[in-house]
Amino acid sequence: MPFVEGAYGATVLIIGVLGLSAFLRYRAARKRLAQVEAHYGRVRS
Amino acid sequence: MTQDYPNEAPLSAMGEPPLEVMRSKSGAWLHQFANPGRFQRFVQPIIPWLSGVALVLTVVGLVWGFYFAPPDWQQGVTARIMDVHVPAAWVAMNGYAALAICSLLSIVWRHPLADIAAREIGPVGAGFTALCLITGSLWGRPDWGTYWVWDARLTSVLILLFLYLGHIALLRAFDNPQHGYRAAAILGLVGAINLPIIVFSVYWWNSLHQGNSISLTGPSKIYITMLLPLLVCTIAFYLAFLAMVLARISSFIMETKARSLLLAAAEGGRS
């Protein structure tokens, strides 16, 4: 059973880290872009 | 403010595709998807829903596999590792196949979004490959009596992890990003030769690793009560992979756009 727990724990850890890092980066990028656009004006071609 | 950022054009940071490619029929068809503005409009409403469904299915699949999947008559409860090991292996291999396709699009058509996609697939694919190796080792110890053997299947999956890591490193190894993208695309394409080796390794060489238990064309060798949590985890892992990659691509585009706006503002201030 410790092997099963280890495997599922590793799964939660790796997918959690990958998912959380993607989510935080996405949120930070949205926030950053919104700030820059608000400051310098929205640009459209 | 002048219109400095090419909001509707291929990413300026990635370089413009050659004109002959843009003029060709296939190039024009492909490059309508290379438009970051169009990509963002299509993808951004999808990402929250995709992430939500992936999260729910992952939780359901893991709880089902860990608590409710029936034990195997020979392996006992360690067979439950299958529900995370097998989907991780499939996602790792198909993720690399996607990376190889992006590399091909990058080399042949110089598709700007393909370079970004390959760049963002790399770390996620490496994570799933590491997960496949870790869960495989934890499954091997009680069933084979060892965490690791230099078996054809295990070794070829380890090579897959090194290919992912090499791709990540090569992308960042050049001062000129274009050189990095080109070198990484060549590695991505050449590394695809490893995929059939992984799949057929258990048939070509004597291997401790078992052959395929599930086939798209034939009947499954796994009983339905064990198959269902495996299928839920498989769908969940694929959706999670897709959600992460799309979120990372979208993040990269937004980061590039913010940087371009700041650069344009700085240049405007200087002139």
Note the topology.
The complex is a heterodimer of chains A (45) and B (271).
Chain A (H helix, E strand, L loop, with lengths): L1 H39 L5
Chain B lengths: L18 H5 L1 H7 L4 H8 L2 H23 L13 H28 L2 H33 L7 H20 L5 H14 L3 H11 L19 H47 L1
Key features of this structure:
heterodimer, A: 45 residues, mainly alpha, 1 helix, rod-shaped, B: 271 residues, Four Helix Bundle (Hemerythrin (Met), subunit A), 0% strand, disordered N terminus
Question: How would you sum up this structure, described in words?
Answer:
- The complex is a heterodimer of chains A (45) and B (271).
- Helix content of chain A is 87%, strand content 0%.
- With 45 residues, chain A is an all-alpha fold.
- Chain A has one domain.
- The longest helix of chain A is centred in the middle third of the chain and has 39 residues, at 2-40.
- Chain A is rod-shaped.
- In chain A, 27% of the residues are buried.
- Chain B has 271 residues and is mainly alpha-helical.
- Chain B has helices at residues 19-23, 25-31, 36-43, 46-68, 82-109, 112-144, 152-171, 177-190, 194-204, 224-270.
- Chain B has one domain: Four Helix Bundle (Hemerythrin (Met), subunit A) (Up-down Bundle).
- Chain B is built from ten helices and no strands.
- Chain B is globular and about 75 Å long.
Summarize this structure briefly:
The complex is a heterodimer of chains A (45) and B (271). Chain A is mainly alpha-helical and 45 residues long. Chain A has one helix at 2-40.
CATH architecture of chain B: Up-down Bundle
Average the pLDDT over all residues of chain B and give the rounded result.
85
Number of domains of chain B: 1
Reported by name, the CATH topology of chain B is Four Helix Bundle (Hemerythrin (Met), subunit A)
Strand content of chain A: under 5%
Number of H/I helices of chain B:
10
Q: Name the beta content range of chain B.
A: under 5%
Assign the structural class of chain B, choosing from mainly alpha, mainly beta, alpha/beta, alpha+beta, or little secondary structure: mainly alpha
- Order of SSEs of chain A, N→C? H
Provide the succession of SSEs of chain B.
HHHHHHHHHH
Q: Distance N terminus to C terminus of chain A?
A: 60 Å
**Mean pLDDT rating of chain A:** 88
> What's the count of strands of chain A?
0
| Span of the ends, CA to CA of chain B | 13 Å
Low-confidence stretches of chain A: none
